[in-house]
Hints:
The chain has helices at residues 4-18, 29-40, 48-51, 58-74, 78-82, 105-108, 113-120, 166-178, 212-216, 220-223, 238-247, 265-271; strands at residues 85-87, 90-93, 138-145, 155-156, 181-188, 200-205, 251-260, 278-279, 289-293.
Amino acid sequence: MLTLLDFVRYAVSRFVEAKLVFAHGTTDPMAEAAFLVCEALHLHPDQFETFAAARVTAAEAERILELIARRVSTRQPAAYLVNKIYMRGLPFYVDERTIVPRSFIGELLGFSISAATTEAGGSLIHDPRYGRKRARPLHRLRAVLRSSPAGVFPMPQSTRWTFRRTRSRWPRAMSEITGWRTASRCTSGDLFAPLGDSRYDLIISNPPYVDAQGMADLPRECRAEPKLAFDGGADGLDVVRRILDEAGQHLTPQGGLLCEIGRGRELLEAAYPQLPLLWLDTEDSEGEVFWIGAIRSRKPS
């Protein structure tokens, strides 16, 4: 083996033989092999084709083979082996204390939320105290984590931080991701509990939504991640129901909720027939993410 492409071909063969599962930022053995080879050589995945025919040094080859062997023997997500994953082209630092970030919502961030609001109709709140929404150049972002503040939340690699530096790093990271000027806070707590009476134009959530059978069937790679990030109760919707029941108290009239729920669409629509949920498909998903604008939230009767 001489070139990057040679090592990718070898890795694909090893991964297929070992029957690995790919669900952590890559969706097939080829993409994961290219990801690991590039990481071993300090290349962005987008640079693989440029250097595919380039030869690697003996030291580089040793590093590549070590990563391939560890991926097969440990069955850990590749992101944990290199402490990095890419979302929308940005590198994020991750380790075993956090789920490897992946979500269909990322593809939807460029979607016109105002168009979705119009099509879906209605909203999750109705409160005359909130008047006309003013355009603001400064975006106020608030992240609420279910886990302890001592846990690591995925952040862009260029702004890698520990929880002791949250206040200084979080706004910078959010500005890098969104391109917005931001006034941001990151707190821990149980869903909306830390928000008090605050209201927001947009609430985004990718909550735990794996049901009991799904938890029992999780592949070994996913079992390496925190259980808290997956377990959605018996039918997978325990946390999703709470989000729908409480989100209206924290949305402005023009705002809305964007939420990923996996394959629980039928159960959710049966539990909330009164809510006009708009299902947003992505390149890799169908009926797994919904949008709802702000009308009064009602618990199912």
